[in-house]
Design goal:
With 382 residues, the chain is mainly α. It folds into two domains: 290 residues, Cytochrome-c3 Hydrogenase, chain B (Orthogonal Bundle), CATH 1.10.645.10; 70 residues, no CATH class. The chain is built from 19 helices and seven strands. A hairpin with a 2-residue loop joins strand 5 and strand 6. The longest helix has 29 residues. The radius of gyration is 23 Å and the shape is elongated. It starts with a helix and ends with a helix.
Length: 382
């Protein structure tokens, strides 16, 4: 499903991945590891900054500030480097997994992340000088595209556009998930609900996201690796032979010596980033190739008609996407295929209320107003 959620809001696909995974995890009652929670938070916040950088950069360019566009896309490039280091891709990352992620943070990530955060802050400071008190930019945004607080709530607005009207609502604060309730950050709120306030809110949110990322780097817990009480390693063929004879006691807690082509990427980190949940998480390659129990577990999750089978029921899980509340409603009939998956995309209500933000203004005001709601077609499309 990660491959599909990547294409919702493709400016911040990591948030989409994790939102869907957490909806299914809620349905199945899966508890992810503590390290996984922290990694999801920092990757989500990096994704949020990328999204806001893209939004502000494009809006500024459409008003003639080409320099700002180039500066902010350069800053996004710094963060995309981090995302590529972690996921192997920059946009369609397919990184989330039910019960964890596809891989752990690479060696040296913490040092590089701090360096990149510093560079992004330098760009944001430069953009602040270029735009925030720029007479042309301010005149195009101030007092334009106003939506009253009551109308914003009535239309179901969330995210920066709602907060620009003065409504202090952020899913990370009001319905905390992962470890957001353990982190210190503020929710920027505007007053007038105009285009300028939406610019202010996004600029301030980027600083808060970087602040969250730095806290995660300081507190990131280490996960434990699975070995037996003696730390014993055995050859793969020996483990398979023992399993065939039913001598499986202790096997799942024993490391197997595999050839490099069977070990799998970051195999030694597998238990740090995945929940010990056979109903939803594929076994490590060392188990799939090294013992009969792991092989059968792999088959049961992959074979048609088996797969991940949540109990009958339904679950809704919401995360704070870059544009607002991103919710996933999943319904299970007990089979290996979801009976229904519905997405609550944050920019759909924003587009529904766009006409309220345009009525009474000049035709030229469509450009900054439309840009300020950051409509993403992949998420909006019904």
């Amino acid at each position: 499903m990660g491959a599909y959620t990547d294409r919702l809001n493709y400016d911040s696909p990591l948030i989409n991945n994790f939102g869907y995974c957490m909806a299914v995890e809620k349905l199945m009652g899966i508890e992810i590891t503590e390290r996984c929670k922290y990694v999801r938070v920092i990757m989500s916040e990096i994704s949020r900054v990328c999204d806001h950088l893209t939004c502000v950069a494009a809006s500024a360019m459409e008003l003639g500030a080409m320099t700002v566009f180039l500066y902010m896309i350069k800053a996004r490039e710094y963060l995309w480097e981090l995302i590529e280091d972690v996921t192997g891709a920059r946009l369609t990352i397919s990184y989330g997994r039910i019960g964890g992620m596809s891989g752990d943070l690479p060696e040296g990530f913490e040092v590089k992340a701090r360096e990149m955060f510093k560079k992004v802050r330098e760009v944001l400071a430069e953009v602040d000088k270029l735009l925030t008190r720029n007479r042309i930019f301010v005149d195009r945004l101030k007092g334009v595209g106003i939506i009253p607080k009551a109308d914003a709530v009535a239309y179901g607005f969330t995210g920066p556009v709602l907060r620009s009207t003065g409504v202090n609502y952020d899913v990370r604060k009001h319905q905390p998930y992962l470890v957001y309730d353990q982190l210190d950050f503020e929710v920027p709120v505007g007053t007038t609900g105009d285009n300028l306030d939406r610019y202010y809110v996004r600029m301030q949110e980027m600083e808060q996201s970087l602040r969250i990322g730095e806290q995660v780097l300081e507190r990131l817990p280490k996960g434990r690796l699975n070995v037996d009480h003696e730390g014993k390693e055995i050859e793969a063929h020996e483990m398979v032979d023992r399993a065939k004879m039913g001598l499986t006691r202790g096997i799942t807690e024993t490391l197997v010596q595999l050839s490099p082509n069977l070990e799998g990427l970051e195999d030694s980190m597998y238990d740090q980033i995945t929940a010990k949940e056979k109903r939803a998480v594929l076994p490590a390659k060392r188990d799939a190739y090294g013992n009969i129990e792991g092989l059968m577990n792999h088959f049961m999750l992959i074979m048609n008609g088996n797969g991940i089978r949540p109990p009958q029921g339904e679950a809704y899980f919401a995360v704070e996407g870059a544009n607002g509340e991103l919710g996933f409603y999943v319904v299970s009939d007990g089979s290996d295929r979801p009976y229904r998956v519905r997405v609550r995309p944050p920019c759909f209500p924003l587009m529904a209320g766009l006409h309220k933000m345009l009525e009474g203004y000049m035709m030229a005001d469509v450009v900054p107003t439309f840009g300020s709601i950051n409509m993403i077609a992949g998420e909006l499309d019904r």
